[in-house]
Amino acid sequence: MYGGKEITVGDEVFVFYSESGTEEGLVYKGVVLQRLNESGATKPEVDIRIEASASRPLTIRELAPFRDSADGTPQSEISRKLYYQAHNKVARISAGEALFLDNFFDA
């Protein structure tokens, strides 16, 4: 779950879209408006407001070379979170990872 149980109203979120046979990758940035289930739930569900669409692609294929790296870069940490366990998840990311992902959106 990667810290996803701790998500709260006002948290910034990055949405990755993955469909079998396509490579959407990073598509949206938004903010949590409401938790739809109790705090600390095993599988958090949230209502979000989309604030921006990615202006350039970041696909799982682009992150693949970093998935087994332990170098601590944002790319390797994001890749690890996307590749291991189920893809439909809420995961906490570091400030460095958020800064890296922000680069894929127009200012």
Task: Describe the protein's architecture and organization.
The radius of gyration is 14 Å and the shape is globular. The termini are far apart. Strands 1-2-3 form a three-stranded antiparallel β-sheet. α2 (74-83) crosses α3 (95-102). It has three helices and three strands. The protein is of the alpha+beta class and 107 residues long.
Gist of the model:
By secondary structure, this protein is α+β, with helices and mostly antiparallel strands. The chain has three helices and three strands, in the order βββααα.
Layout of helices and strands:
Layout lengths: L11 E6 L7 E11 L10 E8 L6 H4 L10 H10 L11 H8 L5
Antiparallel strand pairs: 1-2, 2-3
Helix content: 10-25%
The strand line-up of the biggest sheet is 1-2-3
- Per DSSP E runs of 2 or more residues, the count of β-strands stands at 3
Low-confidence stretches: none
- What general form does the structure show? globular
Which structural traits does this protein have?
3 helices; 107 residues; single chain; alpha+beta; three-stranded antiparallel β-sheet
